[in-house]
Amino acid sequence: MKASFRPSPNSFKNTFCVFREIAAKAIENLEVQFESKSGSTYYYTELGMYRLSNHWGRLANSKWRLEPMEPASSSKTKLGFAAWNDFYTDNAEEELYYLEVNYTNKTVNYQHKNNPNYDTKAMLRTSFETTKKIKQIRNLFNLTSWAKYFEYDDLDLLRQHIINQLIFTNKTLEEIKRALKWEETTREI
Questions:
Q1: Which residues are registered as beta bridge partners of 109?
Q2: How much is the pLDDT for 19?
Q3: What is the distance between the alpha carbons of residues 100 and 10, in angstroms, rounded to a whole number?
Q4: Helix, strand and coil in the chain, % to nearest 5
Q5: Are 18 and 81 spatial neighbours (Cβ–Cβ below 8 Å)?
Q6: Which residues of the chain have pLDDT under 50?
Q7: What is the pLDDT of residue 3?
């Protein structure tokens, strides 16, 4: 009988990880190795961890996000997989996170700086600063009342201009809006 692979119990404290949603058949021949008080089940392999859960995001002292399958599954309980090297350290003090935006879907997400896709162009922020910027970007995508103070031909281009500055600079939203208003007034003179 093959011995079960089991990581140290403290391995996942204060970690950030993005799991990829996969079909439930991936765990058909695996045994549950841990079940949390909230009902999430964990399956450990040499390659990584499978997690079957109906809740994702902040978990105790970690941030674990699930990237959904395409097309999205209808089940509330989802199976995610993450390789061991997809777990990164997390803390509230360091600037560990950057933002990624999908303008087509009007979504924003955060990623860890140790993600191999990080190109060092987006500003790094603490978790608190990252959460604040995410809220601002979501409001820019979902609301239009803010735009009535600007002259523009294409709202999506205006959004993109503001959001890009939120991602790639340390300017506050107020500074960005003020600079846009200044550009408009100096154009009129």
A1: 100
A2: 97
A3: 29
A4: 30, 25, 45
A5: no
A6: 1, 189
A7: 56
Structure tokens at 181: 């208003």
- Predicted model pTM: 0.87
Alpha-carbon distances, residue 3 vs 34, 46, 81, 108, 188 (angstroms): 15, 11, 21, 41, 74
Distance CA 164, CA 101 (A): 9
The structure tokens listed for 34 are: 């841990």
137 CB-near residues (< 8 Å, 6+ apart):
99, 101, 108, 163, 166
Distance, first Cα to last Cα, the chain: 81
- The four Cα atoms 88, 92, 97, 102 give a dihedral, to 10 degrees, of 110
Tokens coding 105? 């879907």
Residues listed for the chain: 189
Buried b (16+ CB within 10 A) or exposed e, 7-21: eeeeebeebbbbbeb
Sign of CA dihedral 128, 139, 55, 5: negative
Measure the CA–CA gap between 139 and 38, rounded to whole angstroms.
Answer: 32
Read off the tokens for 2.
């093959």
Question: How far is the C-alpha of 106 from the C-alpha of 36, rounded, in Å?
Answer: 34
| Alpha carbon distances (Å) from 44 to 18, 35, 52, 144, 155 | 16, 12, 12, 46, 47
Residue 80 near residue 56, CB atoms below 8 Å: yes
45 in helix, strand or coil? Answer: coil
Written as six digits, the tokens of 157 are 């281009």
